[in-house]
Predict the 3D structure of the following.
Amino acid sequence: MTSSDPPVQVPVASAWTDALARLAADQARVRAGGGPRAQQRQHEKSRLTARERIARLVDEGTVFDELMTFAGWGMYEEVGGCPSGGTVTGIGRIQGRPWMIVANDATVKAGAFFPITAKKVIRAQTIALENHLPVVYLVDSAGVYLPMQDEIFPDQDDFGRVFYLNARMSARGVPQIAAIMGNCVAGGAYLPVMCDTLIMTEGSGLYLAGPALVKAAIGQVVDSEELGGAAMHAGIAGTVDYREPDDDAALARVRSLADLYARGEVALWARRRAEVRAAPERDLTGLVGFDGSKTYDVRDLITALTDGGEFHEFKAEYGETIVCGFARVGGYPVGFVANQRMVIKKKLKSGGEPGLRTRIEVGGVIYGDSADKAARFILDANQAGVPLVFLSDVTGFLVGRDSEQEGIIRRGAKLVNAVSNSVVPKITVITGGSFGAGNYAMNGKAYSPRFLFAWPSAKYAVMSGNAAAKTLLDIQLAALKRGGHEPDDEELQALYHEVKAKYDTELDPRYAAARLWVDEIIPPNDTRERLIRALEACAQNPVQEEFKVGVFQV
């Protein structure tokens, strides 16, 4: 195929089939952790792997909603990689109640903390804190990965933040149970000890410095059991609350204790939960194109997610490139803010001319009136105390002379203000593009969504691939010319493809998920059930702050 050949048109169904198959294969690869040999070594120590422990911990027949599966994807390859950030996190039901579970994966570098590991644990703790979810830590870690200690240790959102959040959750009354089921070394030893309850299995080790380091530091020779074994901590130091013979006994103890914890009130909005009605059956991959080129009515997507397909649209005939309205999902009341992907024929003021004028508005673009409408709707949702669900498929705000004269910056700032100061739970699902300031307006990661999911079709960047590649190419060309080099056509073509390939890699949702810009990549047809369980998690926090917007642009 030459550069002059037309692009191959891949059927939509085939594109989605391939994307979902790749997602499943990549998830399986990540969930294998350090691989079969490392899993075997874990079993030879009479220990379960992280995911085996979780499977035995959660209620039988329930779903474990894994979060941040792709943490570390494509990173640290020079040292063998760090699948799933060397730890498994997610929400599972224990004795009928949703718990955040954080489990070190000892098959990956002995469960050592890489920079992304600390950030993943911090994100899991933040989700737990914001939603008042109790936490179980299944500890099996060799501590900080020393070759990268300068990237893990000192900053605000590095390793020390884990213990800060331990303490903050304890102060808020969020239950935390830790089970040491292997190594627990150095600074990492503080995590389980700062929890409400500490369980430890025989053969595990808990110490600030292991036997080798103690000998090197002070010349003392001591074995692991005497220094930090379960018997010592249970009977001499008094650090451990419960000593158990093995993993199964420790997990059974966690379940028994979890069953005793008191449960508080749910959020006010969750107390208005109605009987769940089924949503209309619809294959969402048949509605939304994989590559973003297909137009679709986002109302069809919304009604496919809502109970009974019922949707009360707000200002349906105004600001039509964003669709807003109220519905129920899993019985819970929610407000939707969604990018419309249809082409809109917009009626305009006559401007002194006889009759009405019209203009064509492009789906996925935020215009001034749609920004106004969405900002107002977010205020209404906060007034009503109803959670917000953002369906993000946005190319950005409208640019150009007319848009600037209509005050697009001022009106966009109003929307960003409303999103920033909203106090009801916010959940974002990125279904397609999430570009530029549109990401901000549609509740991107910087705006503290309680949960942020992405479909495999999501594209996450400052601007789209072609536009960015051309811009970056222009910058590189200018630099080459300043250096006295004038590239020929062949060199220009090669340079363009190189720049575009790099940018396309960065557009992939796995790239975003690797860096925790999204919490999980999910298949489109799983969206409704993930939303229902995410809302259930949000409902565990009954506290809602006072809603204030500060200086609000008008």
About this structure: The CA atoms of residues 180 and 200 lie 5 Å apart.
